[in-house]
């Protein structure tokens, strides 16, 4: 039989339990504060934003201006693509293509033979190879007046030249990226190819006439335009001449240019688009042979286009004559006669148009053999302007 519990014994057992519970509670509070400080500081603090950035976002987003911080330098401009430079060159003569890029771009040919529905009006490209200004420009301005859309102008001048024609002149903005040239140096031929390359970028250019600062037109624009665009040949002076043979070297023969293929002629050509494309795209003869200085020959601008026509077998596609008259009957040293104002007469130009005798045009004998003439001095300008109404009158 169990003994009855003593009074107050249950109360005594509860007190220790309460003490244990209170102690556990206090220890829990202390440990919780310690753990929180330790955990937050050592593990979460690297991932948390500072209090200054813990802000409630506004209900309406604020507009952020698209500008660079003032402390940062502006980014370097991205160089224009080759395509962009080509497109820009269509409306102006300036671009930043290298010669290599230019010749590559200029050598491209449309493979679709039919022209677009709107048609392409053929233009004559006038290529001026000069040393500075074009002193006879006012005469050319009168020549071009009223015939916009039928011609293009390209000027290769000294890179040191800083002048400019007036904005109302068709020559305004027509200087192409140019390099230095010197008489008798191959860099003259470089300049001619540079002019052709720039002109070929315009698909409407069908004829290409090389001119100097002393050249003038000796026909009115409509007649001259019809003469050039109506021709089925190029006009590249190309002959097997005794004085030309003297410049042939064994160097050329070793590179497949025989003496029988070697040609000489007047520098001032007029050519069609097909031959111009051959000149700018030639990688066989120009760079490896003609531009190779080991041959020691100068004045190759009087040989390269002429010999190229021979090498390509251009045959009847070239008239083998120039359409730029020069007076070699009265030469001054190695240059043709220069003309001053007192010589400017209608009779002089009639003589110049006839050239040196009979010539052929599209297979028949022609009355007009020359459409340009040189060399006219700057002081002849006033006399030329006075005669311009008769000079440019319809034939």
Automatic annotation (TrEMBL):
The keyword Glycosyltransferase applies. Pfam families: Branch. It is found in: Membrane. Residues 60-86 are annotated as: Disordered. It comes from the Eukaryota. GO terms for cellular component: membrane. InterPro entries: BC10-like (IPR044174), Glyco_trans_14 (IPR003406). It is a single-pass type II membrane protein. Residues 67-80 have a biased composition (Pro residues). GO terms for molecular function: glycosyltransferase activity. Keywords: Glycoprotein, Glycosyltransferase, Membrane, Transferase. PANTHER family: CORE-2/I-BRANCHING BETA-1,6-N-ACETYLGLUCOSAMINYLTRANSFERASE FAMILY PROTEIN-RELATED, GLYCOSYLTRANSFERASE. This is Glycosyltransferase.
